[in-house]
UniProtKB/TrEMBL annotation:
One of its GO terms (molecular function) is acyltransferase activity. This is N-acetyltransferase domain-containing protein. Signal peptide: none annotated. One of its GO terms (biological process) is mitotic sister chromatid cohesion. InterPro entries: Acyl_CoA_acyltransferase, N-term/lysine_N-AcTrnsfr. GO terms for cellular component: NatA complex.
Amino acid sequence: MLKSLNSAIFPVSYTADFYKKVIKSGIMARLAVENGVAIGAVCARVEIDKQHSGRQIAYVMTLGCLAPWRRKGI
């Protein structure tokens, strides 16, 4: 489902390796669903910020939703 959403939302294609990493690693992936239909997604991971005393930061890799639901607070 994530792959088909990303294909519809973004002008770039993500490799099969990207999706394998999402499944197997500590990457957070969440879907936005309305009436049983996936309309958006986010993929992010937590990293250690080596430049600022090792605090944790979130790195958002992808964030988007299908055009009809944009600018609606999803």
